[in-house]
Design brief:
10 helices, 47% helix, alpha/beta, TIM Barrel, disordered N terminus, nine-stranded parallel beta sheet, two-stranded antiparallel sheet
């Protein structure tokens, strides 16, 4: 455990040194905001907005673009597309939309891990079982909920063993249910201990689904974080308003201080900027402007937090 802690702090110090030297924050952007546009348009917008790293969403315009269903030729073409855009994919989603509670869905999950590894992506972002039959007011019956959890954990362990072989890390994010809050996330990583099972923090989801901001247990969770999803939220629990990160109700400067004081040295990425609009119908030029705005707002906050942590 001590060796692991030293390694973690070393990676955080290295991230801080790199950020200070380059004057840039380790920010990437998901193609999810452009889901209504072709992938090529998403990559173009993300690169023009100043990002170097990308998280490809599985579908664009309802067509598969980053899924295990792609054949060899399609995968080769996708690699060229990333290279031509000057972007490096360093994150992927795995298990989104799946109820990982049967061997059949587990097979899909493992195939998504394989795809990430094939593209050199070493971290995937996923979720666990959700708590609601219909959010925000109708939770699942306790028996149904318990059964889902009883089915999920053994399959998660198998997925983690597969991830260990691939040297890919699964990072589960808050999304009600087993990962609802920082305390819930701590329970998950303690229940399935592995260096290949970590957490992707998402303060926007904790605010939206749980009505909690800031989460009082975040500092304790920091050593288990591999990724931070920078999603803002505005209003009370259940209010579907996800503005440009840094313009809503999430205290991003405070969150960054907690992260970097705790030794965080992982990845950060922008996931949503749609506010109250239909993301799939957004004009691409508006998306370009908003992801650029997010980077310009958050970068100084991140660098300030990194430098303060370095000084302390």
């Amino acid at each position: 455990m001590q060796t692991s802690r030293r390694t973690f702090l070393f990676s955080a110090a290295a991230a801080a040194a790199t950020a200070s030297a380059t004057g840039t924050a380790p920010l990437g952007c998901a193609t999810l905001p452009y889901t209504g546009q072709p992938l090529a348009r998403a990559l173009e917008g993300i690169r023009r907005a100043g990002y170097q790293h990308v998280l490809p969403y599985s579908t664009h315009q309802r067509k598969p673009v980053f899924t295990p269903a792609l054949n060899a030729a399609e995968r080769a073409a996708l690699r060229r597309q990333f290279a031509d855009a000057g972007l490096v994919p360093n994150l992927a989603y795995a298990g989104l939309g799946l109820r990982v509670n049967s061997p059949k869905t587990l097979d899909v999950y493992l195939a998504e891990l394989d795809l990430a590894a094939e593209f050199g992506i070493r971290t995937v972002v996923g979720v666990g079982p959700g708590r609601f039959a219909k959010f925000p007011g109708l939770p699942k019956r306790i028996g149904e909920w318990q059964q889902e959890c009883d089915l999920f954990y053994p399959l998660l362990e198998r997925a983690v063993r597969h991830a260990e072989q691939l040297r890919v890390t699964i990072a589960l994010k808050p999304h009600t249910g087993v990962t609802a809050t920082a305390a819930h996330c701590l329970d998950v990583v303690r229940r399935v201990p592995s260096q290949r099972l970590k957490i992707c923090w998402d303060a926007g989801n904790v605010s939206f689904y749980e009505g909690i901001r800031p989460d009082p247990d975040l500092a304790e969770l920091v050593p288990h974080l591999r990724v931070v999803c920078l999603k803002d939220h505005r209003g009370l629990r259940g209010n579907p308003d996800f503005p440009v990160p840094g313009t809503g109700d999430i205290d991003h400067p405070g969150m960054f201080r907690t992260l970097y004081r705790g030794g965080f040295g992982g990845l950060l990425y922008i996931e949503r900027i749609d506010g109250t609009e239909d993301a799939a119908a957004m004009v691409p030029d508006v998306i370009d402007q908003r992801i650029r705005q997010a980077r310009e707002i958050l970068t100084p906050m991140i660098l300030t937090a990194i430098n303060e942590a370095k000084e302390n």
